[in-house]
Design brief:
Radius of gyration: 28 Å
Low-confidence stretches: none
Distance between the termini: 71 Å
Helix content: 55-70%
Mean pLDDT: 80
Number of helices: 7
Number of domains: 2
Structural class: alpha+beta
Strand order of the largest sheet: 1-2-3
Length: about 170
């Protein structure tokens, strides 16, 4: 069985719960599968009626082929999903089995894009202190950076005097 990796920050337990709920919906009996078959049958009936009205019987065949490819390609194959919390606080990789291929593929693809964007942003716009990054503090990283930048001070008194003198001179010249 193939597996897909999903990267998240600070919410691996929630992601695992969501995927377990998906497994329950798709595999906890025949209710969901019966619903999908009923919807497909109703759609086929509508496509056949529409084809009779337009005298084009191939439209029903195209619909049937599309439903077979869609259902057979995205819902029937089941894969394993590995959920990795990239914040360093998530612990071990969480594994969920029997996830439909369509959901696993698109969730993995979008999470890899998000992880790549986060990694590139932190690399290109890095701060001197790596503990201020998003991957360490989540959405509060920006607020923490702003708070710490407002409390920054210069330890050298001569440099502090030079900065205040330059600032005062600029105010006078304006």
């Amino acid at each position: 069985m193939t597996s897909f990796d999903i990267y998240c920050f600070f919410n691996a337990a929630e992601m695992e719960a969501i995927f377990h709920a998906v497994v329950l919906v798709f595999g906890a009996g025949d209710d969901f599968e019966t619903l999908l078959k009923l919807v497909a049958l109703m759609g086929l009936f509508i496509a056949v009626c529409y084809g009779f009205l337009r005298a084009r019987a191939e439209e029903a065949g195209v619909y049937l082929l599309a439903i077979a490819l869609f259902y057979g390609g995205l819902f029937l194959p089941r894969v394993t999903v590995n959920i990795q919390d990239m914040s360093g606080m998530g612990g071990a990789v969480r594994t969920v089995d029997n996830i439909p291929l369509g959901l696993a593929f698109f969730a993995s693809f979008t999470s890899k894009i998000g992880y790549w964007l986060t990694d590139r942003f932190e690399t290109m716009f890095s701060l001197p202190d790596p503990s201020l990054n998003f991957s360490q503090h989540g959405l509060m990283a920006g607020a923490r950076t702003l708070r710490l930048s407002q409390t920054a001070n210069l330890p050298d008194p001569l440099m502090l005097q030079d900065f205040t003198t330059v600032h005062a001179d600029r105010k006078l010249s304006m």
